Amino acid sequence: MSTPTKLYEGKAKILYTTDDPGVLLTQFKDDATAFNAQKKGTIAGKGEINCTISQHLFQLLERQGIPTHFIDCPSASTMRVKAVKIIPLEVVVRNIAAGSLCQQTGLALGTVLNPPLVEFYYKNDALGDPLLTIDRLRMMALATPEQVEQLRSMALKINVLLTDFFQRCAITLVDFKLEFGMEGEQLLLADEISPDTCRLWDQADTDPDRRVMDKDRFRRDLGGVEQAYQHVLERVLAQITPV
Asked: Could you report how far apart the first and last alpha carbons of the chain are, in Å?
């Protein structure tokens, strides 16, 4: 067995090659970034927590007919995934107004969006991951019209499934970011689903700061980041494997 070679290192994960060219090894890091890496830090245990949450949510979605890149987890902070060609788009689904949506539109924090809003952002750190219109997306040839429709459809289906699951965890799924890749002709959900990529509010607390259970605690210096991530993990595991 050959030694894994680092293929790519991002803000939250490192990708390594394996003996199988169709399989990659993802190492989840404890590093934390915000505001396009202008703010940096560390969240103790984040790698293991995010890897474990992502594992269970990928498996949950697979059982409901959503194809993903997930294979298995050889350790607490590593995940074997299918080698896909990532589509350079971040697909964001918003159920409740928060973050940049409030800043850019003037919508009040907590405004319920019905139907949910689906947005596309260009995955490009140098440009600050800009929001794209559908016409710009097509002009840049980042995805075909058919792929765009498939991305929207899959994102909305994932939203229904995750919203229902987190509801059982007594957590409100405010919004979340998805990434997708192609394995041949098949579109697969990729990246991760975790408190790093979702806004999650504790339904047991209405205080706008205390209820936050995601990376906004790091972004906004709210404190208790590790504890919030741990609480999400505990609730996810309680639903996946009921006591």
From this structure: 39
Amino acid at 101: L
DSSP states of 118-130 as a string? EEEEE--GGGT--
Q: What is the pTM of this model?
A: 0.95
E-strand stretches of 169-242: 171-183, 186-190, 198-202
Q: Which of 35, 49, 31 minimizes the C-alpha distance to 236?
A: 49
Query: Is 24 within 8 Å of 62 (Cβ atoms)?
Result: no
Q: Summarize pLDDT for 21-75 with one digit per residue, the tens.
A: 999 999 999 999 888 777 899 999 999 999 999 999 999 999 999 999 999 999 9
User: What are the distances in angstroms from CA 106 to CA 100, 111, 206?
Assistant: 10, 11, 21
3-state helix, strand, coil in the chain (%, to 5): 30, 35, 35
Q: Quick one: which of 223, 239, 237, 242 has its CA closest to 76?
A: 237
The two tokens of residue 178 are 């998805």
Structure tokens at 169: 């965890």
